[in-house]
Design a protein that fits this description.
This protein is mainly α. The protein contains 17 helices and two strands. The N terminus is likely disordered.
């Protein structure tokens, strides 16, 4: 009997490793909620399904998948059953309240079963992208993994997580459409932002602190993203930001820009949907002190992806595996060898 049998319904047939990923993700979703609390910070996201998929994609064995599952789930809170029903007229009332996990999951599941997931995404993503920074971009990332996993239930859970974590960080009416790097330079060239390093606990709280600053809002007002190639441009900018200032924050810029590309591949993202993401991206960038991105970063790692995969698969770390997987996927998509350096650098611990 294979090791995954203890997670399977007795009537199920034997699963392959890819099937094992789905099995473990489904078990985790059935037993645990989309968020968990850690170090007194509510609203942190459950990374389990994303990690399982990344591990499987990098060649993790069946026993390693189970070992990671067993290591991870003790930090999660048990799933609470629905106590109310959410309907289409009132679905926004619980946005950002860290409540209604099962309610939102049922709401999106019922509609997706009838209309199809793409129709649901077209209807709700325009609104949800206004609060995409909530949960440090993780609901967006979870949605991308769900689409890669081809799991309707995971996609509906990602949308539920997005509703719970929803946080608007400004609603700028952009005065200008600028090249992304020109917009970033407006922050990095200003000593005010170079010294802005909020100390609040957690990425989101620091982003909220930045976004509440009128000077940030005024600069964002002049920094609207261009009308074309925004997703590819953000990916390049995120990589350069990580290489200039490798950190836990810039890691999330890379993984979330990867998620944008995956979601866009399934449901084309309109430019106006991405404005909320751009504001959240800039807020995260400013929390680092708006680092200068003008330096050159050529590829120089002497390791290969197989080495990095082996190290990432062995790590009990719920960000290492996702980051290395994202870097590899983006390196293929854009033909950019510097993603190997980014992954190597994070694994080597060379971050702030």
């Amino acid at each position: 009997m294979d090791q995954l049998s203890r997670f399977l319904d007795p009537t199920m047939t034997r699963h392959t490793i890819s099937g094992g990923v789905k099995t473990l993700a489904a078990r985790g979703r059935a037993e645990y909620g989309a968020e968990y609390a850690s170090n007194g910070l509510g609203g942190m996201q459950n990374h389990l399904p994303m990690c399982l998929y990344a591990l499987g994609a990098m060649g993790a064995s069946e026993s390693r998948l189970i070992g990671f599952y067993d290591w991870y789930v003790p930090r999660l809170e048990k799933r609470s059953p629905a106590v109310r029903r959410i309907d289409q007229d009132g679905w926004e009332t619980l946005l950002g309240h860290h409540a209604g996990n099962d309610e939102y999951f049922s709401f999106f599941s019922e509609q997706a079963e009838v209309e199809g997931l793409d129709r649901v995404l077209d209807r709700y993503l325009p609104r949800l992208f206004r609060g995409v920074g909530g949960g440090a971009f993780h609901p967006l990332i979870r949605l991308a993994y769900a689409l890669e996993m081809d799991s309707l239930d995971e996609a509906c859970e990602a949308l539920a997580a997005w509703c719970m974590a929803y946080r608007e960080l400004g609603d700028a009416e952009f005065a200008e459409r600028r090249d992304l790097r020109t917009s970033v330079a407006a922050f990095s060239s200003d000593p005010y932002f170079r010294e802005a390093r909020p100390r609040e606990p957690g990425i989101l709280r620091r982003m909220e602190k930045v976004a509440a600053d009128p000077r940030f809002a005024a600069t964002v007002h002049r920094s609207g993203p261009p009308g074309r190639d925004v997703i590819a441009g953000i990916a390049r900018l995120s990589l350069d930001t990580f290489l200039s200032a490798p950190s836990f924050v810039t890691l999330h810029l890379v993984t979330s820009s990867h998620a944008l590309r995956i979601v866009d591949r399934h449901v084309p993202l309109q430019n106006e949907w991405l404005e909320g993401y751009w504001i959240a991206w800039l807020a995260a960038y400013v929390t680092l002190g708006a680092p200068d991105l003008s330096g050159e970063h050529s590829a120089h790692s002497n390791r290969d992806w197989a080495d990095l995969f082996d190290e990432a698969v062995a790590a009990d770390d719920d960000h290492v595996n996702k980051f290395v997987y994202s870097c590899h996927a983006e390196s293929i998509a854009y033909g950019e060898p510097r993603y190997l350096d980014a992954a190597d650098r994070y694994l080597s611990g060379a971050t702030a």
